[in-house]
Amino acid sequence: MEKIIIVFDGFCVLCNNYVRWVSKRNPNKNIYFTNFDSDYIKNNYPKLNLGDTVFIITEGDQILERSQAIKYCLKHVKLNYFLKTIIKLSPNFLLDIFYRLIAKNRYFLFGKLDVCSIPDDVNQENILF
User: Fold this and answer.
1) How far apart are CA 43 and CA 10, in angstroms?
2) pLDDT digit string (tens) for 77-108?
């Protein structure tokens, strides 16, 4: 089973909610989570910096971002087939426009935490510190 790592902004409320959502819908428990401030990222991917995107690190060390990362992640979670198909068939450039718009305004729209964190209700075995 493929190991997937989601690297997210631990200060972002939207990003934390995305992590919760993915965690609840990952029946194989093969998706792991870490934030940009973790020792795991500092030690293994020091050039990976917090930006306005979520990153996916595949088992082959391929780094995906924005809509490409979201689409890749959706392959491994339980989701309504119709919705999954619509997202899968949508062109990346179009999804990236919406992604960038939301990402640039995420703190204003959804809030910002005082401390970089990982949600408490995520399976602790799937967190990379």
Assistant:
1) 17
2) 999 999 999 999 999 999 999 999 999 999 99
Classify each residue of 16-29 as buried b or exposed e, where b means 16 or more C-beta atoms within 10 Å of its C-beta: bebbbebbeebeee
Strands 55-57 and 4-8: antiparallel
SS3 content of the chain, % helix, strand, coil (to 5): 45, 15, 40
Contact residues for 46 (Cβ-Cβ < 8 A; gap 6+): none
pTM as predicted: 0.92
**Eight-class DSSP state of 55:** E
* Pairing label, strands 63-65, 31-35: unpaired
Distance CA 40, CA 46 (A): 9
Tell me how crowded residue 64 is: count the other CB atoms within 10 A of its CB. 18
CB 19 within 8 A of CB 121: no
Sheet holding 63-65, edge to edge: 31-35, 4-8, 55-57, 63-65
State the pairing for strand pair 31-35/4-8. parallel
